Amino acid sequence: MQGGWARRFMNVSPAGKVLPCHAAETLSELEFIRRDGSLAEIWRDSPAFQRFRGTAWMQEPCRSCERREIDWGAVAASLRA
């Protein structure tokens, strides 16, 4: 199984948008679709979910970190906030 966003859970907002986490909607450059299809289809086909699959999208220091497939860049993201 490929890692990254929504590997273990997804959120559905009150407006019906399927999100990889509760805070993802704050990323204005991504568009999250409403739940019109199955969750499997959304996870597999949605550009927003595909964008963060695997580890190729990561920047340093995450890309070379030994924990990259454990926290998926969450540690570095929390330091930027």
Keywords:
81 residues, mainly alpha, two-stranded antiparallel ribbon, 28% helix
Structural write-up:
By secondary structure, this protein is mostly helical. Helices cover 28% and strands 5% of the residues. A two-stranded antiparallel sheet has the order 1-2. A hairpin with a 5-residue loop joins β1 and β2. The protein is elongated and about 35 Å long. The mean pLDDT is 77.
- Compute the gyration radius: what is it? 13 Å
Helix count from the secondary structure assignment: 4
Helix content: 25-40%
Strand order of the largest sheet: 1-2
Choose one word for the global shape.
Answer: elongated
Chain-averaged pLDDT: 77
Class computed from helices, strands and strand pairing: mainly alpha
Number of strands: 2
Compressed to H and E, one letter per element, the order equals EEHHHH
- Uncertain residue ranges: none
Main β-sheet description: 2 strands, antiparallel
Approximate strand percentage: under 5%
Distance between the termini: 29 Å
List the helices and strands and how they pair.
Elements: E1 11-12, E2 18-19, H1 39-45, H2 47-51, H3 68-71, H4 74-80
Antiparallel strand pairs: 1-2
